[in-house]
Specification:
Number of helices of chain A: 4
GO molecular function (chain A): ATP binding; ubiquitin-protein transferase activity
Strand content of chain B: 5-15%
Strand order of the largest sheet of chain A: 1-2-3-4
CATH class of chain A: Alpha Beta
Structural class of chain A: alpha+beta
Low-confidence stretches of chain B: none
Order of helices and strands of chain B: HHHHHEEEH
Family (chain A): Belongs to the ubiquitin-conjugating enzyme family.
Largest interface: A-B, 12 and 13 residues
Strand order of the largest sheet of chain B: 1-2-3
Pfam family, one (chain A): UQ_con
Number of strands of chain A: 4
CATH superfamily of one domain in chain B: Zinc/RING finger domain, C3HC4 (zinc finger)
CATH class of one domain in chain B: Alpha Beta
Keywords (chain A): ATP-binding, Nucleotide-binding, Transferase, Ubl conjugation pathway
Organism (chain A): Lachancea dasiensis
Number of domains of chain A: 1
Oligomer: heterodimer
Helix content of chain A: 25-40%
Radius of gyration of chain B: 24 Å
Order of helices and strands of chain A: HEEEEHHH
Strand content of chain A: 15-25%
Largest sheet of chain B: 3 strands, antiparallel
Number of strands of chain B: 3
CATH superfamily of chain A: Ubiquitin Conjugating Enzyme
Helix content of chain B: 25-40%
Chain lengths: ~160, ~160
């Protein structure tokens, strides 16, 4: 299925240039040209969230069985505080990325898009970061946002772009 | 202190248990292999109450039976537009001189037979809309199965 990845590689560059609705995806491509199984992506934090103004790196690993199997996607470790993301490992809890909810009609760009949407729409009922989820469930949004900002400014690998 | 197994000179994970587990997995395999065959279903449908039948059918969520995939309607080349491509391999259908394209029932989404066959061997949902392709399966017709009165006991 590497031909499919090669096709995606070609199309992604085109889509990112032409389609304004993906303007928050700064880059998406294989780490090296001779190996299409490892990709990197850079996304901007969504506007009107605590992540706004920060850049985040996604590490994407594609198996031989792609697109019949979902890609393995993580954030760079210690980079993003979010109730559905494990801060230490960068693991993401998103049903789309699990085998039983995956569909081969998805491509890497739309996976990245789904993860970007997750940043703005945390789902506290299936948390990987219990502290942040508890604050959301208690509807204490100011405490939640303050804690996220604290992490982003402290141990973050993301950098403010302005 | 010695354990119960040592004192009684037995081994819980003994050979007997292994053999039993083998047999169980064999039966399990057999059921999996034939679970979707109509004949077995028809036979089973005679002895299992209808309410239970539904539950049993729902258990077989792993992929579609081969004959289902084989029976998917082919799409004639003349009905394919020039831009249409398979969303699994992202290849344009017309790039192939003899494209083998099938249409899923109900949602009518199209794919290369080769691509969708691999997917449907593990799943029962349409890759594009997640429609359960088997959910509209016709009911098993039990009326055609003849039940012998004497259960074949008297030769």
């Amino acid at each position: 299925m590497s031909s499919r990845l090669a096709k995606e590689y070609k199309n992604v560059a085109k889509t990112l240039r032409a389609d304004q609705s993906f303007s928050h995806v700064l880059s998406l491509g294989p780490c090296s040209d001779d190996n299409l199984t490892h990709w990197d992506a850079q996304i901007m934090g969504p506007a009107d969230t605590c992540y706004s103004g920060y850049k985040f790196t996604l590490r994407i690993q594609v198996t031989d069985r792609y697109p019949l199997e979902p890609p393995k996607i993580r954030f760079a470790p210690f980079s993003i505080p979010h109730c559905n993301i494990d801060f230490d490992s960068g693991r993401i809890c998103l049903t789309l990325l699990e085998q039983e909810h995956w569909s081969p009609a998805w491509d890497l760009l739309h996976c990245v898009q789904a993860i970007w949407l997750l940043l703005a729409n945390p789902e506290p009922d299936s948390p990987l970061d219990v502290d942040l989820a508890c604050l959301l469930r208690a509807k204490d949004y100011s405490a939640h946002d303050a804690l996220v900002c604290y992490y982003l400014n402290g141990g973050s690998h993301g950098s403010r772009s302005n | 202190m010695s354990t119960y197994e040592e004192e009684h000179n037995t081994n819980r994970a003994g050979a007997g248990q292994d053999a039993r587990r083998d047999l169980r997995s064999q039966i399990h395999d057999m059921y999996q292999e034939n679970g979707t065959s109509n004949l077995l279903l028809q036979l089973l449908s005679q002895i299992i109450p209808e309410s239970l039948q539904e539950e049993l059918l729902q258990d077989q969520k792993e992929g579609c039976p081969e004959h289902f995939v084989d029976s998917l309607p082919r799409v004639n080349q003349s009905k394919l537009s020039d831009e249409e491509s398979c969303s699994i391999c992202c290849c344009n259908y017309k790039e192939d001189k003899y494209p083998l394209v099938v249409e899923l029932p109900h949602c009518s989404h199209r794919f290369d037979l080769e691509c969708v066959a691999v997917w449907l061997s593990k799943s029962t949902s349409c890759p594009l809309c997640r429609d359960d392709v088997l959910s509209h399966k016709p009911k098993i017709d039990v009326s055609t199965v003849e039940v012998e009165d004497d259960w074949g006991m008297y030769g």
